[in-house]
C-alpha cells in the first residue's frame, strides 16, 4: 500500500504568521520614523526652506560639514583597514584590552571626546603639538579631529568583521602560489572584504556628519569658520528659529539617506 502523504497547512500558516510578526516590527519602527519626519515636514514653511538655500552662513556650514566628513572617512579608513585586519588575524598579549579600547568611543558619550581633547591641549604634550604649527583648538582641523575620534571605531569594527568573514586559508593558498604576505593582503583579503569596508566607511561618514557635542566644546560654532550643520541646528533653535533648524535637519536627513542609498545600490543591493 503506498505511503499516504500528509499535508501540513498548519506549519505553513505558522510560518506566515511568524513572518508577519517579524515584518510588523519592521513596519512599526520604520513607520515611527516616517511619522516623525512627516511632523517635521508639516511644521516648516517655504520661507524656512528658502532660507537654508539662500543663507550664505548655512551654505558655508553645509560645505564645511561635507568636506570635513569626507576627510574624516579617508583618515578613518586608513586606520580601520590595517587595524581591522590586525585584530582579525593576530592574537597578542593584551588583545582583549586593546579590542575593548577600540570599542570605547562607541559606548561613551561623544561629548567626552571634545572635553578630553580640550583638556589634552592644555597639557605640556598638547602645547608641544600646537607649537609645531598644528593648531586644533577652535580651528577647522579640530573638527576633523573630533569627527575622527568619535567615528573611527565604527569603521574599525566593521573592517574587523569583514576580515573575519574572509577564510584565512585562502590567503595561505595565495602564499603557497608565490605571493608575499603583503600581496596576499592586497590581492585576496582586501578585495574579499570590500563590502564590509565600504560599510565601515558609511558608518564613519554618518557618525562624522552628524556629530555635535565634541565640536561645540572643542572648536565652538563660529559662523563661516567652525560652524557645521549640527551646530547650525543648535544656533537656529537657540534664537527661536525652529522652522529653519528643522529645515536644516531635513537637509541633513536627505543628504544622509541619499548617500546611503547610492552606496548600497553601487554595492548591488536591490531597491
Structural class: mainly alpha
Supply the number of helical segments. 13
- C-alpha termini separation: 51 Å
- Give helix and strand order, one letter per element, not per position: HHHHHHHHHHHHH
> Overall mean pLDDT score?
87
What would CATH call the class?
Answer: Mainly Alpha
- Give the CATH architecture: Orthogonal Bundle
Residues in helix, %: over 70%
Q: Say how many strands there are.
A: 0
For the biggest sheet, the summary is:
none
> Runs with pLDDT <50, length 5+?
6-10
Task: Fill in the CATH topology.
Answer: MetI-like fold
Count of the separate structural domains: 1
CATH superfamily: MetI-like
Cα gyration radius (Å): 24 Å
Strand composition percent: under 5%
Global geometry? globular
Description:
By secondary structure, the chain is mainly alpha-helical. The chain has one domain: Orthogonal Bundle (MetI-like fold), CATH 1.10.3720.10. Helix content is 79%, strand content 0%. It has helices spanning 9-43, 46-54, 56-89, 95-107, 111-120, 124-131, 140-164, 168-176, 181-192, 194-210, 213-218, 229-238, 242-266. Helix 1 packs across helix 13 (242-266) and helix 7 (140-164) packs antiparallel against helix 10 (194-210). It is globular, with a radius of gyration of 24 Å. It starts with 8 loop residues before the first helix and ends in a 5-residue tail after the last helix. Residues 6-10 have low confidence and may be disordered.
